[in-house]
Amino acid sequence: MVDLAHVLSNVTNPALAVVLLIATIRQRVYNPWLFAVTAAAAIGYSVWIAEMGKDVLLYPHPGGFPSGHETFAAACLTCLVWINRRWLAFAIPAAILMGVAIVLARYHAPIDVVGAAIISPLTTSSVIFLCLSAAERIRSTS
Known about the structure:
mainly alpha
């Protein structure tokens, strides 16, 4: 079981990145280039926030809160939901799968996963909202 958890925790994020890339190219709601750059910035920002959080000792398990694995997964899934809410049916089970896999693989404690699952969608959505709003304002004034 632990070997499967290791495989899932190492394969899930690259697979989610590929799914997000394909969905970004195929979607018709936003300009694909604009959304690709926005999603990359949002994911990068969320992961940066998670990594910065690891330097703050919140509980006696230093260096693990929040999970970078789950932060990346939740950020990709949040971007997919911004493209189309129907992705939510895929996003929730994928986030749970990633969280369970990294706990079973003993990469993180459950609290690390929960922290990332809360922080990542908030930071990712904030960046996407701000970038897309700014792009809309620029487009409407030109």
